[in-house]
Amino acid sequence: MYSLFIDTHDIEIIIALYKDEKLLDSIIKKSTRHHSEYIMPTIRDIISNNGIEVKDLGQILVVNGPGSFTGVRLAVTIAKTLAYTLNIPIKTITSLEVIMVSSNCELPIIHDVKGIFGGLFKNGELVDNYFYMSNEEFEEYRIKHDYAIEEKYEIDFEKVYKYLENREPLNPHEVNPLYIKVIEALKND
User: What CATH number has the domain bearing residue 71?
Assistant: First the structure.
């Protein structure tokens, strides 16, 4: 079975293709503010470069956030559309779970312009809710709890696949982006 992995939560478009649980190919393309221009051609390239067709896909794996508001929505929308039209399973994984699984880090974080997304994991399980903090708030939190953080990592595609193996697939209509940061318009409510 072929599985397609889609991740656009950050400045890179990450597309991976698995065959029978093993990584077959991956494309990582840096794309500052142009994800919508490059994601579909990148998916097309990984599929055609490996001699298959879209109809050969048996499963979609998508990073549903947190991260770039537009990037996360783009990946989720494409993943949902593929899963629905092909009538195949879809599974989600958070960007923080990808970091945790790939680097064995208990406190994976993602920086954005004004702060940090994070989550505390113990034995591969989220301990509390994901959070978004200002840089100053996060530094106080990290020092108070004496946590080591992992900022540099490479995706271990096979560990990510293994982590998702026992996760139940979702109905494509139930797949939604994971937003943690409250948008400015809602802060006054």
Answer: 3.30.420.40
